[in-house]
## 1
Amino acid sequence: MNSVSTILTGDRPTGPLHLGHYVGSLARRVKLQHDYSQTILVADLQGLTDNGHRPEKVASNILQVMADYLAVGIDPLKTTICLQSGLPALAELTMLYMNIVTVARLERNPTVKNEIEQKGFTRSLPVGFMVYPVSQAADITAFQADLVPVGDDQLPMIEQTNEIVHKLNALTGTPVLRPCRAILSDTGRLPGVDGNAKMSKSLGNALPLSASEAEIHRAVHAMYTDPAHLKITDPGKIEGNVVFTYLDAFHPDKAKVAEMKAHYRRGGLGDRSCKNTLEECLQMLLAPIRRRRAELIRDPEMLLAILKTGTQKAHAVTQQTLYEVKKGLGLPVMF
Ligand code: TRP
């Protein structure tokens, strides 16, 4: 087992990525790729667990997500980008791990429980969806990842992964699998442009990385501020004011934001002016990303070639783990 820290992250390709992804994870991945061995998994199989009836929704977004990665600065020479369905070891490990996880344990997973409720699954719950935490454990362990940068909603997955690691290692009597820990983002979750706690395409409150100049303008100027701040001279509230949440997340000059907040609280700083400042930041951030993305998406063969190269590299790593797990369990290895 190697001792170098290995990072695995993943995204379900169910839509193009948005500003929430940028703040929560993409920007950090761009930084981490310089200091760690990092792999990003395009989790199409996981995307299918609640889209089994519309596979095109997943299939058509694989290259969209690839374009998002490269446009924000993920460098395929530094980060391995690979496709979950192209890695048979992940499916095989899932199959092996399913036997050491109980249905009761899966039912207790709070993230899965929430999702089941939100999606209104009752008897219609797909088996694949129920077991996706096991598949995620296969993803993480197959790469022998010890660091998993995720949002706090993914903590139950990490906990469940480590349970599987310990059970399997106890069964094999040797430390075949490596335990992992989550790295939580220091910036909180970015609210939607409407102020809803979560930015999500399905809630219609997301700004995609490909947003046009006009879309950015419209979204910023429709943002929720302080409804009691009627006149410019009125003192305003920062708490719950989406414009300031976004300024905190995107304005490069923290001192300037602090000064704006003080001015807004005192009175005398208008919403329009704050929104103009925010719009300027977002236009500056997104213009080069939009330009690169548009170029990338024009060359799907190139995107696919990058994904294939990464998947081939990942294939070797994940097959090795599968081999060690099978050997540890005493199963004869056929080839
Ligand atoms: N569950 C993650 C999400 O919905 C995606 C994912 C799949 C993942 N496999 C992973 C994340 C492995 C980290 C590690 O965003």
## 2
Amino acid sequence: MDIDALPVTALKGVGPRLAEKLQRLDLYTVQDVLFHLPYRYQDRTRIVELGGLRPGMEAVVVGTIEVADVAFRGKRSLLCRISDGTGFLTLRFFHFSAAQQSRLQRGCRVRAYGEVRLTRSGLEMIHPEYTVVSEHDAPSAAEDHLTPVYPTTEGVHQLSLRRLAAQALDRHLDDIREWLPQAVLAALDFPVLKEALLCVHRPAPDAEVVLLLEGRHPLQQRLAFEELLAYQLSLLRARTTKQRQQAPSLGSQGRLHQRLLEQLPFGLTDAQRRVIDEVRRDLEQECPMQRLVQGDVGSGKTLVAAAVATFAVEAAYQVAIMAPTELLAEQHAKNFQHWFEPLGVEVARLSGKQGVRSRAAALAAIASGEAAVVVGTHALFQQGVEFAGLGLVVVDEQHRFGVHQRLALREKGNRDGRYPHQLIMTATPIPRTLAQAIYADLNVSVVDELPPNRTPVKTVVIPDSRRAEVVERVLHAGRQGQQVYWVCPLIEESEALELQTATDTETALAEALPQLRVALVHGRMRPAEKERVMAAFMGGEVDLLVATTVIEVGMDVPNASLMIIENAERLGLSQLHQLRGRVGRGTTDSSCVLLYQPPLSELARKRLSAMRETNDGFEIARRDLELRGPGEMLGTRQTGMPRFRIADIMRDQVLLPSVQRTAALLLEKYPERIDPLVRRWLGQGEKYCDI
Ligand code: ADP
Ligand code: MG
């Protein structure tokens, strides 16, 4: 049987129970197992000297126990301090038996494997895997090749996945079909698929470790190419399907548009005008628009949305505006009401927290068509919400929604086989080549100009040792009636030790600045509580808002003119840029203080200089791309890109032109290969297009 159709239960040891669990990883067939690729490797091939350990490393070490002790402070734990002449490391065990304790004595030599963490008392490994080794043996590392680490899920052990992969490789590798045309393989000098799969699951002992760890090994690149190709093909296919769909043509004379503009206290920027025209032309078509509007933070995308909404409303259709959070929905609702109600256009607001009666009233107005514009979160598309005639959906800050939600939302508007037009707005600028690869199913417009009279935000980079000066500065701004953001990123719980938590910071700042009204907002708060605090800040009742990065998206408080970002060296460039975009929205000069903990890595130094040197989102994106090496923190989620199994769209950009050419070739000459190729990489549900 074709392994594309051979169920996982064909593998030994996989019964119905395990098969069901494997489904959670989207593993249905033997082929799925072969294409369930390690997302990283552990390097147990060499012993790292203790002096060479750095926090975050996973390493094999060998050392002699100098001190073994049971500590009772906090949680009871067994601590073994080992040394190898180059440095020290503490092995910490929370669970240990008496036998273990009596073995791990002073003088005993151990080999351990684990992740290195930095604590107050130095470098540590918590619950390392370890073995006691003899005094006389030359220390050898345990493995002769890199150890694969597979994405896993509850109830499926890493070791079972390793065993399944091994079994699938041993018994079924030869059944894998090659879908890339011979000419393409030859032209790109690609190895055969089987060899690539084998290497990725089971790297040879002599494989170049550094390349493998970085995902740049030619055999990995071969797979990354195929994955990008499958993704590209699926997007192109989606696009073709969409072009066959029907949408209402929303032609209008633009009278409402004109009236909206007349009541604005300012004129549109050229960029806004151009993008509005592009959208307007799409809306007049009879196939559904799928357009992405990119525009830097503060470029005025909300107004673009309002302007294009007028065309739909004038054509007697409804418009839905969808925001990623209740808070942003609230902000949009206010803006839209402000703009539309004077024009006699009713704006309804749907919210998760609204009372029964107000919800019923909103639902009735939406169903009757009385409300021409509806603003809300994804609650807009829940059951029970019926539109009279939805013509246009605007999705703000798209990367917080997945492709799935985008599609579900389109279905919602499906009436007699006709779909609403869709406009997606994002503040994450992506260079054009990437945009083409990622959004092949969308047209792209760019608002590449900021409204006039914006003074660029002045950015300074200051070490944490000069914190007192920064606090002075906050006081000064507060005294002038300006509002201030103080952002404390919490990167990861395990690293929280050296990071000041937002709570500590708030306490300290409130103490240091009794003159100011200080409030705290963080991601762990209940949504209602969070919104209450944010609303107080928007309303000017709070001078200093201490926050984790929850404020990143879309907040518009023009009176906020100072932003402090702590641990700025930990954040990616585009995230820093998004955060900074929260200030510089009013008429006063704004500044952004990037506080860092020395010493700075080379990369962090470059990122912070980039922030100091430019305010331009596209330039930032360009530098981000340039700086972003493999293994860098900046996650794909943040930039709204799909999560791939092996490809990394930044790292593998060089492949994109040939991916695009190959996609065209397959469409033209080998259309029958498209389906199996897409299924192999994207599975049944295209799940990992989720962005
Ligand atoms: P973003 O693109 O980040 O969503 P917003 O839509 O929140 O930006 O707009 C930022 C601010 O700029 C808002 O206060 C908005 O009223 C204002 N604005 C938008 N367009 C213009 C314009 N053409 N001239 C002056 N101010 C504008
Ligand atoms: Mg916005």
